[in-house]
Amino acid sequence: MKIGKIASEINGKIVCSGDMADEEITSVCAFDMMSDVLAYVRDQNALITGLVNPQVVRTAVMVDIVCIVFVCGKKPTEDMIKLAENYHIVFVTTDLDTYETAGRLYAAGLKGGC
């Protein structure tokens, strides 16, 4: 599923690296603890999280995540946006909570798992 379609499915908005909206995403995971991302993420290339700090971007870089979805109306800072653009990571924001976001993406056909 393309990142643009992900944003549409969750009533989200792409806030950085929009030039990558056509990037294909094949799986997604949801974590708030970045230590869990490092421990469990294997083949996911999108992350759903409520955590908003630069460590999210740094962790995503380490495990090749190319899209971060921020839930509950949380917005990344300008510093985070600059960091993400340096690494070509797309940010999507949504007002939905983690459960609803994951459920909609699962129903739309994205797989998950660790």
From TrEMBL:
Entry protein name: DRTGG domain-containing protein
Family matches, as InterPro entries: DRTGG, Ser_kin/Pase_Hpr-like_N_sf
Domain DRTGG: start-end pairs: 6-106
Pfam family for this entry, one: DRTGG
Superkingdom to which the source organism belongs: Bacteria
